Amino acid sequence: MTLSITKNGLEGSRRPRRRRGAGSSICLLLVSSNVSSQSTSNSVEVNIQIVGDGTDYYVPANVTVKLGQVITFAVFNTDDNTHGLAIPAFNVDTGIIKHGITARVTFTADKVGTFPWDEPIGYCTGGNGNVCNSAQDLKGNLTVTP
Ligand SMILES: [Cu+2]
Question: How far is the CA of 84 from the centre of ligand 1 (A)?
Answer without folding.
Answer: 6
